[in-house]
Amino acid sequence: GSSATPSASAQSTGPFAIGYSNGGGVGNGFREEQVCTAKAEVAALGTSKISGITVIHRNTDAAGQLSDLRDLIAKNVKAIVFNPNDPDALNPALAEAHKAGIVTVSVDAYVTDPNTWNLYNNQVKYAYLGASWLFKQLGGKGTVWYTRGLAGHPADSDRDIGFKQALKENPGITVVPDVNGVFTGWDPKTATQITNDFISSGQYDKIQGIWASGMGAQIVDAIKAANKKFVPIADADIGAFVKQLLDPADYPGLVGAAVTNTASVGGAGVSMAYKLLTGQTVTPSTGAGRPNTVLLDPQILDNTTDQGKADLQKWISVPGMDPLWPLSLSIPGWTDYNPATVPSSCKGA
Amino acid sequence: MTPNPPDQLLLATGISKTYGAVVALRNASLGVRPGEVHALLGANGAGKSTLVKILTGAVHPDGGTIAVRGRERTVHSPAEARRGGLVSVYQEPSLIPDLDIRANLRITNTPVESFRHWVSELGLPDLDLTSLARRLPLASLRVIDLARALANEPDVLMLDEMTAALPANLTERVLEVVGRRKGGDSSVIFISHRMIEIAELCDRATVLREGETVGVVDVTAGSDKRIVDLMLGPMAAEIPAAAERPAAAPRPADAQPRLSARGVSDGRRLHEVSFDLHPGEVLGVVALEGQGQDELFDILAGSSRPATGSLVVDGTPVAFRHPADAIQAGVVYVPADRAEALMMQRSVRENIALPFVAGVRHWAMLNMGAERKTVDEAVATLQIDARAGNEVRRLSGGNQQKVTIARWVATGVRTLLCFDPTRGIDIRTKQQIYVLLRELAQGGAAVLLYTSELKEVQLVCDRAIVIFGGRIVAQVAGADADEPSLLRAAYNLAPDEVIPELAVAFANPDGAPGSADTAAAGADPDGPGGGAPRAGDAPTGEQSEDPA
Amino acid sequence: MSTTATLASRGRSLVGRRDVLRRNGWTFGLLGLLAVLLLFAKIVEPSYGVLAIQGLGTSVLPLAIAAVAQAVVVISGGIDLSIGSMMALTSVVAASAMYKQPDEFGIVVVIGVLALGLALGAVNGALVVTTKVPDIVVTLAMSFVWAGFALIVRPAPGGGASSWLMDLAVGPILVDWIPKATVVMLIVVAVVWIPIARSRLGLSFYALGSNALAAFRSGVPVGRTKWASYVVGGLFAALGGLALTASTGIGTPVPGPYTLESVAAVVLGGVSLAGGRGGVLGPMIAVVVLQMVRTDMTFMSIDTNLAIVAQGVILIGVVMFGSLLEIRRASR
Amino acid sequence: MTAATSRRPRRQTAAGVRGLFRDQPVIPLLGLLAILVVVIEVVDPGIVSIDWAGVIIKGSVPLAILAGCQTIAMLTGGIDLSVGAVASMTGFVTATMIHSPGGEVQGIVIALVAASLAGFVSGVGVGVFRVHPLIMTLGMNFVVLGLANVWQLQNVQTGAGVPANLRTLGSGAFVEVLPYSLVVFVPVMALILVGLKRTGYGRLLYAIGDNPVAARLSGARSWQVLIVLYVISGLLAGIAGLILSGYANTASVSLADSSVLPSIAAAVIGGTSIMGGRGGYAGSIVGAVILTVLAALLTILGLPEPTRQIVFGSIIVVMAAAYTRVTAES
Ligand SMILES: Nc1ncnc2c1ncn2[C@@H]1O[C@H](COP(=O)(O)OP(=O)(O)OP(=O)(O)O)[C@@H](O)[C@H]1O
Ligand SMILES: Nc1ncnc2c1ncn2[C@@H]1O[C@H](COP(=O)(O)OP(=O)(O)OP(=O)(O)O)[C@@H](O)[C@H]1O
Ligand SMILES: [Mg+2]
Ligand SMILES: [Mg+2]
To answer: Is the pTM of this model over 0.90?
Structure first.
């Protein structure tokens, strides 16, 4: 990857209008928080730098997001930050944006458009970290229940890659129901139902660990409701799950690790867009495997050590956040706002 | 006619059909000779319609054989039947509502030219082929259906209660056109509950009873009684004599009417109609098709609001916004069309009990015991054959008709509006309904009865009002409401004028050329045309007097 | 001649004229609404122009074709809740087959995918006809089945599309103001639908939707016609799938929101859910209208959640307006 | 059509059986359910047990209640696509209120009122303005989702959390066996069953679905019936939403979306005609249980997602077809 060479047309001194496109997950904690962090970043940068942000957030597919991007282009924004529904599908609109001198930043997942910058959580690594931790907990051998997200979703596919990497390194681990796992569709109800069925069929008694893709809290609660003993579980930094890890009273003997999957990429995307618009240099991560890409490496924390517990506690920086929202509310070096302002910035257009 | 059996054009033998538990047809047979008009007769539930549907492939029989011109064949669909020369005009019009007439012709591969020919023969010369079927009045649809059938040059043409809903002038045309086919090498199967049409038109009659062929009769002057006996079989005995109408009870001049209309207009077809309906009387309404009687009943029943004028019930003026208001005021309505009145998938019981639960006040728990009692009484009073009673659609037409009335009888009716309640049902059932209406009146109810069967007026009504062009043009006492005078009144003619259509009807029964014009001339120039159904009853009535 | 006739026919010719207006009035209304929305966009965002119009043409392509597919089935008295899944399946098949293949091969793929669409529709139709299970249920269940197959073909989004196919979906034709996508869509729909509509089959579709019993008695082969309507629906669904692949260059196994949106578009487009009435043009225009509404709201920077609310309100409002017209017409 | 599809001779007895099934659709359904249970026992011997039954019931209750919404709507020839958004909204609104004083009860009340209100609007649209139910409720689905999400963004900080009591209600079980959700479900079930069979209002639902004209001529004001219907539907959806949020210990504005299509499937498998006028709630309940058992079976078989979906869809078709055949109208 080479360092940024911002397009001439973009070299001006704001304030800039920014467009934001989110092609799915209306009401979903991660996606909503992402938008909120974007708004928080806009507020933090101030109207002298960013004149305003137009958000399009609706449940649609790649084709639908294409038209949303085109609407933003037609609206004459100077930069578009978006969470892509697909790595390749949006390229036509992105090319049009480039022609119109619009800076484009893809957050939370990459796109293959050469002129678009990518800034996202390393999902392969996300899965790899959690799985490796889990397998280590089991001493490299045992049976693990592999619960995934939404079949066919890019992030889910990336995580599958990471999981299987870790699996290859731990030949002693067997995966149920099979190496392709079972899908929760990132739907809490389905996750609960699947877990209930899994438990009542007696299969739960035969496993030593669980890898989860964001539905850990529901799975843990189902186990609790069935009065079963907890097995080690690796999941994301969703508030509800972390609270469970830190609540031995309600969840005795629950051992688990949370891997960050920060939704602050929204805010980070805005600040990256501003950097690019003002011609500041942005250094891409090495080893991202693609140009113009900044990879946010996930961290992992578990509740096996007091240190870990303390750090997990720190994550709960803004008290009383919606339990389904990811915890890590800022990305050092990328977000300029005060995490406490995120919830309030959700309100209003 | 000739005793030696000639070659049968159509021969159906041993036809049987059961629906669930109910036997619609058991071993029914029907033989039709070339060039004859063959009547298919039977009480309600006898299986006429079902048989016709089977002959034209609309329903598949459980057993039996069908042979055309001696060759046996199985008919899978109406289309196939049509190609084989078997065409039926079903009871319910089978034109496609959202297609225009031209498309309707195309879909049945009907040659447009000969359709035009027939449709004008039948009295709709300048029909606009581009108009949607949905927008045409029922009568026109029936005629179009027939014209389409004729244009397909069928070997055997089947008409299921074709004339039931037709105005007089159109009825005349139909009978005349059908009559003209006699003697050719094609034949007609004619279903009707009107003996008079049978007598006028048909050569022979096959009689069904309870799904079985009980006899084939040559239609002659005296055959009527024979046919009726066959139709009704053992039941014939129990037919109640035509209800004895007591001389109209003398009413004190100041007696308060149950329901009075004061200058009611609907703004389009009904003008300034005023009349009083008193407790204890059956008031007949006589009118040609489309003279505003439908609008009048809609207004009285609360289905639509009058443009001007007012209604008074028991001395208090009322403004009905919804049928519920009318029912509240004790004014209830029996529509002619069963499909309008019945929940076909629900049980007889629920259908009869429907009015009990309609109002918000009755939304709470039901008193099942009491309900069953009332319903059973009603079923008994009207002698409903409820064998197939847990889904009304499985009752025969006649029994369905009874259910529509039972609904109101059960609630103890005060003011009953009946719109042609005997349309398309058999003599016995009709008699039962006459008696019922009389009894209701005796019991202090007030009954307003529109009938398209003129002789019912004399049988049932204390007096009758005649509506023409949306106005009441005459009032007749029940006693002297004989058909000819009613008809004259209905056509708004002076007593001495002859009714041209009647003249035509028997002047040239086999349809002489030019009859079309004479018939048309009969209809009043400005009144919306149409006429009294069953006007055909009149001619033969007079025929015996003076053969023209 | 008889007075019945004169009167009747006089009344009728009036009615006739009203019908003509009535039959196209709704479509004209939609076009008017569309004009207003475009004007509004131009006012709010003066730079709204050629590029945006071309983008519009591309954006509406998949849903517009899906709406046509739905319209055909609804007109015939049915409904197809598996259109979204069929689009997903056909689109992933197309994308997988065209991936890294020469353009000429793309033509073969397109033909194959259209055949696949016919097959999917045939299965839906056969099930609806033979099982006698209400079509809503059958197609609802089949939507799971087709989506499952889509996932088998492509566990994750990807694949590719022949360049010529993608070119069809973007850019102008002849004049800058005419989006190529729109022209292509109109031609394709016309080529498939007009012959059918003019044929006996098209007539049978309307007949069946209008009144199945009357249709049967008029000699319409009810079963076969119903089946055929699903086959044609499947064909258009496949075209919709190709439109997806063309505009995105890939195939996505997870169905988009096309099923319910197509139902909405069909109703907004003046097709009666009872069947027998309407056409395929209205629904296509309705889709463009819906898209423009969204665009205008974006230009006004309306809160994105309120925009979702507005979408629902507009859907209800327009249909409400339509049924109010119906009620008033009935009362007159 | 009917005529078109009438078939060759049938045995009287067969006709009798058919008649029985037509009047008691639950019987064949229970048969199907039994078969499924046998299959699941064969696939995974020893699984069928009391607590397994408990788990199945737990999972079925919310679906069965939502199927109730569809059943009563379908009886009138309608459908309610807004139950997903309404149910989710109810659970979510409640969760956002627990921290305000006395919030739990207050939250539930407010949420249920909101749910009924959504139903009321749908009812007015369908009953007064004659908007097709499919469209009306689809539109309402958008409206409710949008507003619920506005609410979420207004309240992120209040810290939503499913009330403990709802958690017990949704996921707890009396002595580990009898799910507490039955405490709510049994009365609801009784009310609907009795309401449909034994009350005037229930009769009117059938009447309007079968023949609106006849209902009108008999004095029924269908707009009243329909408005009440959709209010009830909204209320039921709300109750289902509360239980669901307890079941998954999750409050999300899209929690119940994945239950909408199954709720329709349950009602239809249960023998309620989507055309109106025919059906009942008993069948829908069994339908809901069947779908839940089916999902469990698929999980146990550990089939990959694509196969799960294919099997799920196919089985719905097959069962609906079998049921239709058994109860077919001559
Ligand atoms: N679909 C059906 N299911 C059950 N029974 C039926 C069905 N159709 C007709 N029947 C029964 O078969 C018998 C014949 O009915 P059908 O209506 O054909 O007689 P009909 O001569 O036409 O009587 P009507 O003159 O009253 O119409 C009746 O007892 C009727 O109840
Ligand atoms: N194939 C069928 N399936 C279901 N119901 C049928 C079928 N055929 C007839 N019926 C029902 O049986 C009843 C009687 O049948 P049919 O149509 O022969 O008599 P009808 O229409 O009542 O005749 P009429 O008008 O002379 O009284 C009708 O209500 C009809 O709904
Ligand atoms: Mg008959
Ligand atoms: Mg009959």
So the answer is: no
